[in-house]
User: Fold this.
Amino acid sequence: MEPVFSLENIVMAVAGFLAIVFVKNLGKESKEAKEMANEANAKIHTIEVLVAGNYVRKEDHEKMTEAMFKKLDRIEEKLDDAPCRIGGHRPLRDKGV
Assistant:
């Protein structure tokens, strides 16, 4: 009968032990990587919500644009009806030009 502590048995035992340690460390590293990825996804989601929350909606933009153009039209009408400051002449459009 061969001895229990032969060189081949010792080498195989050490190799098996190292393989088990390696596989356990891979599991831990994989779990840590998943946790880090989940944290990063959560941060990205909060940033997306913050950015999307600060944009002007299309309907609001259209309302503001329409109001601004109405105001500009009124200003233009007032300027067109106002006498010119140089020489007190009326605007050229009143003269048919």
Q: What stands out?
A: The chain has a mean pLDDT of 82. The helical segments are 7-53, 58-81. Residues 1-55 form one domain.
